[in-house]
């Protein structure tokens, strides 16, 4: 039923991957295994292979070409593209194959793999999308099984794979194969699905091949090449014939603009803003009580003002950042000035709402892993605090300086200040709960991490508060 095509960049973890695949996959599905041996280091006699299985010495031709080469010799109707190292959960395969549409590309949920322990970590990938620099990230927005991209394990019908001409034949060694195949699938009228009840564990790719990404951008996103080349700081030379990508099928039902509009509407909203505040000063205005002692001129003399939630009612803000449905529904500002995560929190109802449906036209951004700061780039870190989200957005704009107003959450002698001005104006301390102290402590930790990021970017942050 299935041909498993496994790309092996070296000889590490090949045996572990194969033993795990054979142990966790029903025998009826194990019809053929093809190993793409990139460096010619594998010995079939030392691996658990049968006479139906093959090792192809692909001589450093790259993953995409190796996959295509192996697919030509596949004997089964379903192709499953894998790479080492990969660990499989029990019963991982049947959900991926259940009612597989003839024009679908599927991937399982992928957890990070600790290769030392050969064990799955808690962090997992559930929906894949493109960042502003066209690299893949773990997209949190998951209202359905459909996903902009597939990754790590690719399941596809062999006939459809050949119809869309497989992976990019002109690519070099490095990532980008999954982006190419995913975009082709959507453009040819197919769909990309992530199957939540199928689990594998992988080691995420951390390197980037700008050559491969440049081919994809030039072929399908030509209007955005300037943003891309500015993002990576270079323009690769001689990226080859991109007509090999654009002429992949006789019938193209969708283009890249359709893909962005329907599957990643937040992509361009952040891409076009990156670095637009170069040489300018930004004021980020929270809702702390110290604003009662702040004159409007202190804020308005900045080039760009970013307000949090209702602050725009007091100050003239260029952007307003909010994460809450309850707040956004009451904000009377043009959507083009509103900066929101692609999933808004409805605190009253205890649910999440798509920003695309509620505030079409707003600047939408993705939140990253909770509390984990990765870079200045969207997806932004999820600090669970709108002021910190606004500060991270300000860093993304690349100003000369940032002044943070209304940043009044403080812990003094193990106690938190009240947010009520009349109580602490006389020096009193609020008798607060451990929950409040933890929240304020987390706020300070987040601010400290953003401060370190600002230091790396050489962007000074000035904090104006009551203490």
Structural overview:
Strand 8 (128-130) and strand 9 (136-138) form a beta hairpin. The chain has helices at residues 14-24, 63-72, 93-97, 158-163, 177-187, 210-220, 225-232, 243-246, 256-263, 266-271, 296-300, 325-328, 355-358, 386-397, 421-424, 434-457; strands spanning 2-8, 30-37, 54-57, 78-83, 86-88, 104-114, 119-125, 128-130, 136-138, 154-157, 191-202, 281-285, 304-308, 319-321, 338-341, 343-346, 351-354, 363-365, 367-370, 380-382, 401-405, 411-412, 415-416, 461-464. It has 2 domains: 2-264, Spore Coat Polysaccharide Biosynthesis Protein SpsA, Chain A, CATH 3.90.550; 271-464, no CATH class. Strands 1, 2, 3, 4, 5, 6, 7, 10 and 11 form a 9-stranded mixed beta sheet that branches. Strands 18-15-14-13-12-21-24 form a 7-stranded parallel beta sheet. It has 16 helices and 24 strands. The chain has 467 residues and is an alpha/beta fold.
Question: Radius of gyration, Cα only, in angstroms?
Answer: 25 Å
Oligomer: single chain
The domain tally reads 2
Write out the CATH superfamily name of the largest domain.
Answer: Spore Coat Polysaccharide Biosynthesis Protein SpsA, Chain A
State the helicity in percent bands: 25-40%
CATH architecture of the largest domain: Alpha-Beta Complex
User: How would you state the average pLDDT, rounded?
Assistant: 86
Under CATH, the topology of the largest domain can be stated as Spore Coat Polysaccharide Biosynthesis Protein SpsA, Chain A
Q: Which class of the largest domain in CATH terms?
A: Alpha Beta
Low-confidence stretches: 418-425
The major β-sheet equals: 9 strands, mixed
Strand content: 15-25%
């Amino acid at each position: 039923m299935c041909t498993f095509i496994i790309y092996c960049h070296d000889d590490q973890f090949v045996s572990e991957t194969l033993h795990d695949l054979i142990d966790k996959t029903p025998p009826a599905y194990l019809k053929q295994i093809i190993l793409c041996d990139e460096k010619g280091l594998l010995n079939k006699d030392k691996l658990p292979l049968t006479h139906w299985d093959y090792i192809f010495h692909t001589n450093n031709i790259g993953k995409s070409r190796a996959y295509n080469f192996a697919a030509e010799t596949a004997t089964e109707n379903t192709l499953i593209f894998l790479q080492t190292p990969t660990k499989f959960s029990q019963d991982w395969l049947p959900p991926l194959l259940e009612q597989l549409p003839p024009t679908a590309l599927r991937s399982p949920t992928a957890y990070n793999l600790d290769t030392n322990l050969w064990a799955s970590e808690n962090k997992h990938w559930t929906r894949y999308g493109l960042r502003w620099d066209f690299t893949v990230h773990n997209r949190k927005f998951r209202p359905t099984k459909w996903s902009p991209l597939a990754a790590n394990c690719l399941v596809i019908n062999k006939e459809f794979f050949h119809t869309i001409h497989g992976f990019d034949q002109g690519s070099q060694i490095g990532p980008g194969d999954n982006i190419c195949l995913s975009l082709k699938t959507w453009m040819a009228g197919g769909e990309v699905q992530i199957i939540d009840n199928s689990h594998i564990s992988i080691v995420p790719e951390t390197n980037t091949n700008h050559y491969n990404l440049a081919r994809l951008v030039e072929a399908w996103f030509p209007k955005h090449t300037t943003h891309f080349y500015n993002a990576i700081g270079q323009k690769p030379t001689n990226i080859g014939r991109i007509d090999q990508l654009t002429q992949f099928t006789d019938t193209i039902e969708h283009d890249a603009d359709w893909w962005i509009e329907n599957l990643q509407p937040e992509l361009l909203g952040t891409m076009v803003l990156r670095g637009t505040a170069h040489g300018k000063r930004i004021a980020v205005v929270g809702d702390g009580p110290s604003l009662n002692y702040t004159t409007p001129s202190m804020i308005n003399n900045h080039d760009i003002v970013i307000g949090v939630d209702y602050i725009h009612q007091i100050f003239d803000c260029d952007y307003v950042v909010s994460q809450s449905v309850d707040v956004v529904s009451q904000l009377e500002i043009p959507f083009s000035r509103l900066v929101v995560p692609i999933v808004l929190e409805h605190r009253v109802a205890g649910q999440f709402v798509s920003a695309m449906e509620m505030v079409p036209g707003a600047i939408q951004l993705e939140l990253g892993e909770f509390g984990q700061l990765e870079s200045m780039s969207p997806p932004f870190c999820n600090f669970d605090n709108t002021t910190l989200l606004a500060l991270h957005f300000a860093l993304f704009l690349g100003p000369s300086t940032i002044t943070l107003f209304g940043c009044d959450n403080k812990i003094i002698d193990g106690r938190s200040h009240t947010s009520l001005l009349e109580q602490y104006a006389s020096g009193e301390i609020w008798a607060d709960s451990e929950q409040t102290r933890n929240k304020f402590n987390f706020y300070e930790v987040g601010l400290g991490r953003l401060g370190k990021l600002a230091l790396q970017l050489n962007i000074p942050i000035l904090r104006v508060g009551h203490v």
